[in-house]
Amino acid sequence: AKRKGQKYDQIIDAAVKVIAQNGYHHSQVSKIAKEAGVADGTIYLYFKNKEDILVSLFEEKMGKFIQKIEEELAGESSIEAKLLILITMHLMQLQKDHSLAIVTQLELRQSNIELRNRINEVLKGYLKLIDTIILLGIEKGVFKEDLDVRITRQMIFGTIDEVVTDWVMKEHKYDLVQLCEPVHTMLLNAMRRS
Amino acid sequence: AKRKGQKYDQIIDAAVKVIAQNGYHHSQVSKIAKEAGVADGTIYLYFKNKEDILVSLFEEKMGKFIQKIEEELAGESSIEAKLLILITMHLMQLQKDHSLAIVTQLELRQSNIELRNRINEVLKGYLKLIDTIILLGIEKGVFKEDLDVRITRQMIFGTIDEVVTDWVMKEHKYDLVQLCEPVHTMLLNAMRRS
Ligand SMILES: CCCCCCCCCCCCCCCCCC(=O)SCCNC(=O)CCNC(=O)[C@H](O)C(C)(C)COP(=O)(O)OP(=O)(O)OC[C@H]1O[C@@H](n2cnc3c(N)ncnc32)[C@H](O)[C@@H]1OP(=O)(O)O
Ligand SMILES: CCCCCCCCCCCCCCCCCC(=O)SCCNC(=O)CCNC(=O)[C@H](O)C(C)(C)COP(=O)(O)OP(=O)(O)OC[C@H]1O[C@@H](n2cnc3c(N)ncnc32)[C@H](O)[C@@H]1OP(=O)(O)O
Hints:
The structure is a homodimer of 194-residue chains.
Chain A: H1 6-22, H2 29-36, H3 40-46, H4 50-74, H5 79-95, H6 98-107, H7 113-139, H8 149-169, H9 180-191
Helix pairs in contact in A: 1-2, 1-4, 1-6, 4-5, 4-7, 5-7, 5-9, 6-8, 7-8
The structure holds stearoyl-coenzyme A (ST9) (2 copies).
One stearoyl-coenzyme A sits between chains A (58, 61-62, 65, 90, 93-94, 100, 103-104, 108-109, 119-121, 123-124, 126-127, 150, 161) and B (162, 165-166, 169-170, 173-174, 179).
């Protein structure tokens, strides 16, 4: 299948919108085609099926997001600043696109195990990025040397993720990005060498 | 509808098993009836529909769980010990019942908004319990006085929850309860007055 081009991007963006609005299970391929302004058959030039659309949109958006974060991280040398960049970009990205936030916090949490494993393989890229920050912090002596990297990653991701889900469930009615600072402070305190 | 009795408990336990095994969407009421060893019609004496079964089983199990935790918490005066009790009981409860863990980590994460709001209303009881520990810790001067209670609760719940989901996705293959201690240490460090 093709993986590039204007139509590919158009279909991905239409899928985010349709899935956020109708839920994954009620998002027929024909609905996505209509929203994208392409023929149903066109979708199948790019995607095998609806599942493939869901996983691909996550892969696509996550790939770009990780690239952007990595660029920002490279420009900062302090470990505290790197962690703040990660938290801020995570919250900003979802605050500026409510449909994407509904997709990440509700629709990607599929319980079908094969589908979920494919989704989690994509998430792995982001979790590995979090690990590099933790490892660097330990190496530099900013974080405790006996931190369990896996549990620390689960705390960082789990905290940010829960903050975002609450905000989605409260229909995005307060400012999410303002929460960067207190989240950053608490996470640093959890990890910092005393 | 009736809310008590041996058959009620039987249906609830059968529902946990059937939903964990087949997924909520493929758990027809008739499958649950068969597993419980009751007639289909009997289920409707107790529950309006499948949705009602899902919410009720969560309500029932969560109610008992909160009661048990509250009893344990009452027997401990130190705030650090109270937090450890909460983490330990959460992890123990799910480690000892894999079906329950699949239900809490995968099947209760429904994206349909009305259903999810009913589920989250039940979860609220547990989150309020976490809040009482945070508030007591602040009052006693063990935790920082400027902690944001909501974000702190999101960190505590989000961290434990992510630890459990990882373990479920890894098919329960390592010991979950051993993670109490490092999770407890990190959370305390995040909150403790310095
Ligand atoms: C639309 C897109 C928008 C993108 C841009 C937006 C920007 C923001 C980003 C938003 C992010 C939100 C995305 C939504 C994600 C949806 C999915 C969720 O629900 S997420 C929320 C829910 N969370 C999830 O669903 C995540 C669930 N987690 C997972 O599925 C996996 O961790 C993984 C696949 C992610 C990584 O797996 P892996 O690479 O394997 O790495 P591990 O370290 O896990 O494990 C390594 C090995 O260690 C073993 N081990 C571990 N602990 C212990 C222990 N204590 N003792 C002994 N052993 C232990 C373990 O068994 C394994 O060994 P083996 O089994 O291979 O032999
Ligand atoms: C089978 C059962 C086994 C049981 C025993 C097993 C033992 C272990 C336990 C396992 C637990 C796992 C259970 C699985 C749960 C499934 C559900 C999930 O996915 S959980 C994982 C995913 N997590 C979720 O799905 C949880 C999502 N959260 C929620 O849905 C809600 O927080 C709530 C319903 C839980 C509580 O709601 P509420 O009582 O309202 O309390 P809030 O504090 O949230 O809000 C209070 C007010 O403050 C406003 N506000 C907040 N922040 C800000 C701010 N920064 N600036 C300004 N304002 C802010 C906010 O808008 C609200 O005002 P208003 O809107 O009323 O005017």
